[in-house]
Write a structure and sequence with these properties.
Chain lengths: 270, 270
């Protein structure tokens, strides 16, 4: 692994290797390639691979306490995934439900220790966090909570196409996770035993992204529908980004903890 | 006005002048004074008079661009108030609705230029912001948006008592606004012509707080109901606090703008 920064890695093995969309007529239905290009352009600007917190993480510049804060807060997002997917499931037809159901199983598993939520708790334990404290979600930053909670109306209100399109960040997540696993192993070797979650997501997210993109492309009948897809992806990027904003503000700089926020042992000893 | 910092002012003319609650039995119904004491203790810790952004504001340490960012983002909260109050209205009985209706009129007014929303847009114009840009809410920080949006499920889901109790931050807002008006005039004289909103709130918020507290005290039949009231107030404090966290992060320190965020003229010239 010769890369020193995420920037180098992105430059060499681009996460966003899709040609930019060439779209001239704002009323014309986009082709498959044009729509994919448009979504990739949104990801290139707004997906959280560019967030300053992730850049610090991938450059090995986070303390153990900051990694813990990330794992603890991000769990709130993880535990919400099967909830939002259940809402989406409730709005689909039988064929859609058969395809979408796997997402819930991927996260919930079929018994203790088998799904993504348990795998995230394993990551938490590997970080030295108390499993029950993380699982309680009691110490999540309000900013993280509000961002994640906003995922529910995004999938329950508005057109069904919007609900499905909100998952399209998975177009980008596979490559980000592959990079992240390398960087985590390199810079935080004490985390190496806790990476089961990411390993599983590598294949899961590719399958999910392919299905979701094929579905929204096929069901978007008008250019307005396609714009709605782009808007849902933008909002979802905002949800991911705002979680990291809250984390950076509280645990990196300026380091202002909101009332009641979780403190790492290092912080509380100061 | 001899105070130099909000801290001094709070110490002298305490916003939170209520005796702390003496509560020994965790199952016993609280008296009026005990409940009020409990709510004031929450405010003393969590109300946004203590937020670092407000402290900077009240000490005269914000730039014009930072004041503009506050006014622009806070408008998203202002325009949501009559929406959340309409939801609360829809859940009350006729007597409740008669009392609560005034809140909607306070903010919407009875014609152009007469309500709190228009008064906030006047403040925006006084700051040098474009009225239409602010009114569009297009440039609101995602963190602000998610925090404010979470006000809606807080009043639409869960018990009606929770919906009413979420307004109890008005127990504290009158005194904060009185202080703020003095500090704004002192430190940002170019804002003086735009303070109509705050002036109106001085009396409105006192009336509103008295009604809401009387209502929740009367309708809380069990200690669990009273705990629910306290929890709703806590969550509402989080909503106010998280808006300022997002603002501080983007416009004070570290100054990381999320993708698509509003930039002040000073910032965009840099």
């Amino acid at each position: 692994m010769g890369h020193t920064t995420l920037k180098d890695a992105v430059a060499e093995r681009s996460i966003f290797d899709h040609a930019p969309a060439q779209i001239e007529d704002s009323s014309q239905l986009l082709t498959r390639e044009q729509l994919l290009g448009k979504l990739h352009a949104i990801g290139a600007e707004r997906y959280h691979h560019r967030h300053p917190f992730h850049l610090l993480m991938h450059e090995g510049k986070l303390t153990r306490g900051q990694i813990q804060a990330w794992v603890l807060n991000r769990f709130y997002y993880q535990q919400m995934i099967p909830i939002k997917d259940s809402i989406i499931l409730s709005r689909g037809d039988v064929e859609f439900r058969r395809a979408w159901l796997k997402r819930i199983v991927d996260h919930d598993g079929s018994g203790q220790g088998t799904g993504g939520i348990d795998a995230w708790l394993l990551l938490a334990e590997t970080c030295g966090l108390d499993r029950a404290v993380v699982a309680s979600c009691e110490h999540v930053l309000p900013g993280t909570r509000f961002a994640v909670d906003s995922y529910l109306p995004l999938v329950s209100d508005g057109p069904f196409l919007q609900a499905v399109a909100s998952s399209l960040t998975e177009l980008f997540s596979g490559k980000l996770i592959a990079l992240r696993m390398e960087f985590l192993k390199q810079h935080y070797p004490w985390l190496s035993e806790g990476l089961k979650y990411f390993k599983a997501r590598l294949t899961q997210s590719r399958e999910d992204a392919e299905f979701a993109f094929a579905y929204v492309f096929e069901h978007a009948r008008t250019r307005e529908d396609q714009e709605l897809i782009a808007k849902a992806l933008t909002r979802k990027c905002d949800i991911l980004w705002a979680q990291l904003d809250a984390l950076y503000y509280a645990y990196v700089a300026p380091g202002n903890l909101p009332p009641g926020a979780w403190q790492s042992e290092a912080t509380s000893e100061q």
